[in-house]
Amino acid sequence: MSDYSYREFLELGIAVCVSCGSANIEENQIKQTKNKPLEHCYDCDFAEGTSTCMPNDTIFYPKAELTLINIKRGKQ
């Protein structure tokens, strides 16, 4: 990982909800609403904050990737 800058490394990750681990948060939505904070989670309906889920997380990262694909397709 010495070839990556810190910013490039973080861009590999996916923003997820710290409460439930879902990527279905306002920050990841295509059309963001003005009345919800970026860390608002639509799955647990809470806005505690976000964390970055990295590709080496074998449990949450595949789920977060799938959620992002569904958001882009308009299924969330």
Write a brief caption for the model.
With 76 residues, the protein is an alpha+beta fold. The chain is built from 2 helices and 2 strands; from the N terminus they run H-E-E-H.
Task: Give the key terms.
alpha+beta, two-stranded antiparallel ribbon
Helix-strand category: alpha+beta
Weakly predicted, low-confidence segments: none
**Alpha carbon gyration radius:** 13 Å
Mean pLDDT across the residues is 88
Strand content: 5-15%
Structure annotation, total helices: 2
Q: Quick one: how many beta strands?
A: 2
What summary fits the major beta sheet?
2 strands, antiparallel
* Basic shape: globular
Fraction of helical residues: 25-40%
Main sheet: which strands, in order across? Answer: 1-2
Element order, helices and strands?
A: HEEH
Span of the ends, CA to CA: 34 Å
Describe this structure as you would to a colleague.
The chain is α+β, with helices and mostly antiparallel strands and 76 residues long. The chain is 25% helix and 11% strand. It is built from 2 helices and 2 strands. The chain has helices at 6-11, 60-72, and strands at residues 14-17, 50-53. A two-stranded antiparallel sheet has the order 1-2. The longest helix is centred in the C-terminal third of the chain and has 13 residues, at 60-72. The model has no long low-confidence stretch (mean pLDDT 88).
